[in-house]
Amino acid sequence: MINEWWSHLPVQSRPGLRSRLLDRNSDTNVFSALWELYLHEMLLGSGCTVEIEHQIGTSGKNPDFLVARDGEQFIVEAKWTPERLGDTGDQLPPQLIDAIDHVPSPNFFVSCTVHAAGSAAATPSQKRLKSGLTRWLASLDPDQVIADSELKIPLPRRTWREDGWSLSFEAIPRSPDKRGDPATRTIGIYPAMTWLNAGQDRVFGAVKKKGSKYGELTLPFIVAIGHAAFFPEDRDTEAALYGASVMNTHTSTPAFGRLPGGYWGSDSHHTHSRVSGVLTVDNPAPWTWTKNTPILWQSPDPSSLPAPVLPSWSTAKLVDFQIERQMPTCPIHDALGLPRLWPLGDAFPRSVG
How far is residue 62's CA from residue 301's CA, in Å, rounded to a whole number? Predict the structure, then answer.
């Protein structure tokens, strides 16, 4: 499908996007290219004609898509916003996670807690870690651990230290019907992680950066954000664009309002009216393309040019401090030319052998 969609691009645009799709050194490059490919195909499938990087505006820079539909033209600028793991210094490096996950453990999962992290230059021996865990898990009887847990006896625990690292493991018995499969992972509960940047900040920053990039425009301008997040929330996007919702209880009749700070908030003084709307899709990827509906967040600024609404988009609009929503008139999978349940088959088929 990616090959087919790529073939729908103008010939001169294919080499650059293909290079990004094949970039083994940058997940951001790959997923941002997929996001642009998705947008291009969705626009074509919605009856639009699309020109790529057409010169427009007063800044001398070229936005991603100049779109025409039913005699109307508008601009779409794509932005991929990934959420990243926080660098807190107390997380396992990928090579240790991989080593633990490959410990043969047919009878137990393990949970892992990081108590102290050594330096990145002193990652401990994976061989010693794996052999120690293997011997410990092999010495345990899963049925006895289950019986002990029913008597409120804590799960078996082991602490491992080397090169400044201190990790503790708990053995979690597998249910009898899930034992003996060598293909299953060993880690059942990963170390707790923290995240950088709230979704509200990422969305606000993306729209602010793109909204001023092209100078003055004479066409409606939509910033399309591929919102890659572990736990995406519409309320984060709502707060980023309109300001967080608050209720004033200090009056005789409680009333809703909005805090300043949103992109189109009370403190923008029409400086952000250039952006007509913000289109968001949560975690767009091949396995979610037909499932996650695009949302067009419409500018409440009366000086903004109105953004066209495609049939596969739902809309959100600020009216008297409240959000009014409209559902799409056709499903996104129709615009993409895909079956509703695409892709077909098992998501993670197991290989035996």
Answer: 25
Site of tokens 């004033």: 248
Q: Are 337 and 261 in contact (CB under 8 A)?
A: no
Beta pairing, strands 255-258 & 245-248: antiparallel
- CB within 8 A of 79, min separation 6: which ones? 206, 209, 210, 223, 224, 225, 226
Which amino acid is residue 11, in one-letter code?
Answer: V
Three-class secondary structure of residue 150 per DSSP: helix
Q: What percent of the chain has pLDDT over 90?
A: 43
> Residue 268: is its pLDDT beyond 60?
no
Longest dimension (CA), the chain: 74
* pLDDT tens, residue by residue, 313-345: 999 999 988 899 999 999 999 999 999 988 887
**C-alpha span between 200 and 65 (Å, rounded):** 25
- Residues comprising the chain, all counted: 353
Q: Is residue 271 scored above 70 in pLDDT?
A: no
Ramachandran quadrant class, 345 (left: phi over 0; alpha: psi -120 to 50; beta: rest): left
| Sign of the alpha-carbon dihedral angle for 9, 12, 17, 18 | positive
Where does the chain show beta strands of DSSP type E? 49-52, 65-69, 72-82, 108-116, 157-162, 165-173, 187-189, 221-228, 245-248, 255-258, 277-282, 295-298, 314-319, 322-326
The per-residue pLDDT for range 106-136, each reduced to its tens digit, is 899 888 888 777 765 566 778 888 899 999 9
**202 pLDDT more than 60:** yes
Q: Which residue has the tokens 């993409």?
A: 336
